[in-house]
Design brief:
This protein has two domains: about 170 residues, 3-Layer(aba) Sandwich (Rossmann fold), CATH 3.40.50.2000; about 160 residues, Glycogen Phosphorylase B (Rossmann fold, 3-Layer(aba) Sandwich), CATH 3.40.50.2000. The protein has twelve helices and twelve strands. The radius of gyration is 21 Å and the shape is globular. The model has no long low-confidence stretch (mean pLDDT about 95).
Length: about 350
């Protein structure tokens, strides 16, 4: 396979997209060559058979220049690739779909998000296959859809030592934005303080990326002050994916309060690291197996939310549960296994 891979960013230091660097490394083991075209180029150390070309965001070029560079690269290197892999950006399929169809390229797309719009429908039309993590994370009804799970670097997400004190450390990892329901975690902290059962901390690891995110952050800090939680709640800001492991390992539990939709990889990373999790998203229930009911919370009552957290971290079979979930991550969601599944579909459909 000679691959053209299109993605938003190649930067192993990025807090959101840094994980994709490892994906490219593994894909390179299955390809003769890979040409990466990204919107923005940052730090990377990829195998010799991988070349990286940027559309120019890091140089602050215009959007018109993005498009010009896109067409320049896909045409200039047309003889050097026979397969296209679009990662999470359907706009590439909109812009290049017709050209790739006319030049007989095999087009694959990876998409995991609840959003369905015209760009996605057009990109799906031009794709031969669409890979996604779960039925919830790609909501167009098509036989092109291939559910292959997520790709977690399970060799990286392992904690080496036990926590040394009794403080209940709750962590939320991801962008500070309304869809993440961060306010519910603040109210949870308020309920924990009111119950005064044990010392606790709530830590938000992630930054903002829009004006509304900044407004929501201010709303959160105002609520924190009103509940007298300034000593209990901290905002760490953005952390590169390559440096995120200590935040898992120092946590007692990770909470992800996002609604039903795509499978958020931070939950899978926590499971790989043998950290208890609590989620709202029904897409995770099947991944939890026999622990599905224990690790799901769909209500809004802060006191009940707090009791759910305390019940999870004090389970008598907690270690057995964590080891079972860790093994499931290794068996079913390791990035090397994901790429292998993608390649099997590719070889069968090519």
């Amino acid at each position: 396979m000679k691959l053209l891979l299109l993605t938003q960013k190649i930067d192993k230091g990025d807090d959101i997209l840094g994980f994709f660097h490892r994906w490219v490394e593994v894909l390179a083991q299955h390809a003769h060559s890979i040409i990466v075209v990204c919107l923005e180029e940052g730090e990377h150390s990829l195998p010799e058979n991988v070349s990286v070309y940027s559309l120019g965001k890091e140089k602050q070029v215009s959007r018109l220049m993005y498009v010009r560079n896109f067409y320049k690269y896909i045409r200039k290197h047309s003889d050097s690739y026979d397969t296209v892999f679009i990662h999470m950006n359907p706009i590439y399929g909109v812009l290049g779909g017709l050209y790739w169809k006319l030049t007989n390229k095999f087009v694959m797309m990876w998409y995991t998000h609840r959003k369905v719009d015209l760009k996605l429908r057009i990109a799906t039309f031009f794709s031969s296959m669409v890979f996604t993590a779960s039925d919830y994370s790609f909501r167009i009804n098509t036989n092109k859809k291939k559910v292959v799970g997520h790709g977690i670097d399970t060799k990286k997400f392992i904690c080496s030592k036990e926590k040394e004190d009794e403080t209940l450390r709750i962590v939320s990892i991801g962008r500070i934005t309304r869809i993440k329901n961060c306010m519910d975690l603040v109210d949870l902290a308020g309920a924990l303080k009111e119950s005064a059962q044990q010392p606790f901390e709530l830590q938000f690891v992630g930054g903002t990326s829009s004006k509304d995110d900044e407004l929501y952050y201010r709303e959160l800090t105002k609520r924190i002050s009103s509940l007298d939680l300034n000593e209990n709640v901290t905002f760490v800001g953005s952390v590169p994916n390559k440096d995120i492991l200590p935040y898992y390992c120092n946590a007692t539990i990770l909470i992800n309060a996002s609604p039903d939709g795509g499978v958020d990889k931070v939950v899978l990373e926590a499971m790989s690291a043998r950290i208890p999790v609590l989620v709202r998203n029904e897409a995770f229930r099947k991944y939890f197996g026999e622990y599905g009911e224990a690790l799901m919370y769909t209500g809004r009552n802060a006191e009940e939310f707090a009791q759910k957290v305390l019940a999870i971290v004090s389970r008598p079979d907690k270690e057995e549960m964590l080891q079972t979930l860790r093994q499931k991550m290794y068996d079913e969601f390791d990035v090397e296994g994901l790429v292998k599944r993608i390649m099997e579909h590719y070889e069968a459909g090519r």
